[in-house]
Amino acid sequence: VKLAAVASLGQIGGDRAQGILSRLARDPDAADLYEAIEEALEEAEWLGGEFELPILDVEEEDEEF
User: How far is CA 27 from the centre of its chain?
Assistant: First the structure.
């Protein structure tokens, strides 16, 4: 499930998804996902653009990633 979530964020792209992935890339608890996170960040960067998900509209301070 974690791998699917990381891959999905890469496919969604945009600043918010890239921010979440970047924070995960620095999280020692996510070390087992580092390779997938790197690939997802590359994909998100390649796709560019912004895909809005209003259902996930959470304040930055509330995110635990």
Answer: 12
Q: What are phi and psi of 2, to 5 degrees?
A: -60, -45
Q: Which two tokens stand for residue 37?
A: 């996170």
Q: CA quadruple 26, 27, 31, 32: dihedral positive or negative?
A: negative
Nearest residue to 17 via CA among 55, 32, 62, 56: 56
Regarding pTM above 0.90, the answer is: no
Q: Dihedral of the CA atoms 40, 25, 17, 44 (nearest 10)?
A: -30
- What gap in Å lies between CA 21 and CA 19, rounded to an integer? 5
Rounded to an integer, what distance in angstroms lies between the CA atom of residue 51 and that of residue 56? 11
Mean per-residue pLDDT, 34-40: 96
- 46 confidence band (pLDDT: 50, 70, 90): confident
